[in-house]
Amino acid sequence: MRTAPLQDRRITKSIAVRTDAKGLPTLNLRFSVEVRAPIVFKPDNRLVISTIEGQETRKRVLLRRADGEALEILSAETGDQTLRVATEPVVKKERTNEYEAGPGDVWLELVLPADSPIGSRTGKLRLSTNDPIAKSFEVPFAMRVRALIEHRPEGLRLWPTPSRSGDGYSGFVTLNRNGKGFFTITGFDVSHPEIFSAAVVSAEAAKRQTIRVELAEGLGPEAISSTIEGWIEIRTDDPIRSKLNVPVIVASSREKTRRPFQTRRTVGE
After folding, report:
1. In the structure, what pLDDT confidence band is assigned to residue 247 with cuts at 50, 70 and 90?
2. CATH no. for residue 102?
3. For residue 142, which phi and psi values (nearest 5 degrees)?
4. Domain for residue 14, yes or no?
5. Residue 159 CB: number of other CB atoms within 10 A?
6. With 152 labelled, which of 23, 29, 195, 263 sits at a CA distance of 20 to 30 A?
7. Is pLDDT of 267 > 70?
8. Inside any domain, residue 226
9. What is the mean pLDDT of the segment spanning 111-135?
10. Which helix (H) or strand (E) holds 174?
11. For the chain, how big is the Rg over CA atoms in Å?
12. pLDDT recorded at residue 16
């Protein structure tokens, strides 16, 4: 049986055996082993950070040698420039949530700075210790930074319709604030003002804002000779998320709008 440095659970395996014994041509043998990790993580060894842009976020876990000896962290590296790691030996007994820390234990803390980029990333934290069994090992980590203000859908697809209204001729984009507080849309920049325009449905400060995007009045399929890949840049009064970009595809028919969106990066993204 192969085990990993951080494995701390029961492992069960089975072996199918074929024999020449009469009445017992096959039998199954089951083996159960209690695996105890040389270094125990509390509450667990899942290093996951989920946050919103503009916020410094910390994840702290307690490390302890299973043999009762004092633990020393000789080195700790993540290989990620946006993630800081720190260790702090426990000097006196303290209780946190449902477990107790004492001298010989070590606090391990991951710090995701407030200026971390939006997106999801994974990696491995490399540790070296004074434990004779777990001299060095890796701990997987994952982090996700969400935009303070997000928009749905990802982009808009528009095309002229005979009725000049409804699905295709216009569409809506909803902006949601993930953090506390409210925001207001202060203005727009449109890539093709002669083709489409944008307007705020509600101008009051709120956690959710909606804009309506509409094709120019009188625009018909004949006016669009080729598919247009444009954008709307939305300005807000939020200092962290001051601008958002929404891709807009306009074509002469619905079928011709079906292509991937290409996001235009702007300040604050």
Report:
1. very high
2. 2.60.40.10
3. -140, 145
4. no
5. 21
6. 195
7. no
8. yes
9. 93
10. strand 170-177
11. 29
12. 94
255 burial level (CB within 10 Å; 0-12, 13-18, 19+): exposed
Average confidence (pLDDT) over 64-74: 94
What domain range includes position 171? 149-257
- Cβ atoms within 10 A of the Cβ of 137, count? 19
Locus of tokens 């024999």:
19
The answer to whether the CB of 111 falls within 8 A of the CB of 87 is no
Position 98 pLDDT exceeds 90:
no
| Residue at 198 is within a domain | yes
Instruction: Evaluate whether 172 touches 210 at the Cβ level (below 8 Å).
Output: yes
What are the angstrom distances between the C-alpha of 99 and each of 41, 63, 64, 92, 123?
A: 11, 12, 12, 14, 27
Instruction: Put the strands of the sheet holding 47-52 in their side by side order.
Output: 47-52, 136-146, 119-129, 73-77
Enter the tokens of residue 150.
């997000």
Q: What confidence tens digit (pLDDT) does each residue in 148-205 have?
A: 999 999 999 999 987 666 678 899 999 999 988 999 999 999 999 999 999 999 778 8
* Co-location of 45 and 74 in the same domain: yes
Structure token digits, residue 144: 């996700």
* 138 and 226 both lie in a single domain: no
One-letter amino acid of 115: D
**What's the mean per-residue pLDDT of the chain?**
89
* 141 and 154 fall within a common domain: no
Using CB atoms within 10 Å of the CB of residue 116, give its burial: 0 to 12 exposed, 13 to 18 middle, 19+ buried: buried
Q: Which residues of 10-40 are buried (b: 16+ CB within 10 A; e: fewer)?
A: eeeeeeeeeeeeeeeeeeeeeeeeeeebbbb
Residues 140 and 187 in one domain: no
Residue 266 pLDDT: 46
Do 250 and 228 touch, CB atoms closer than 8 A?
yes
Q: What is the pTM assigned to this prediction?
A: 0.75
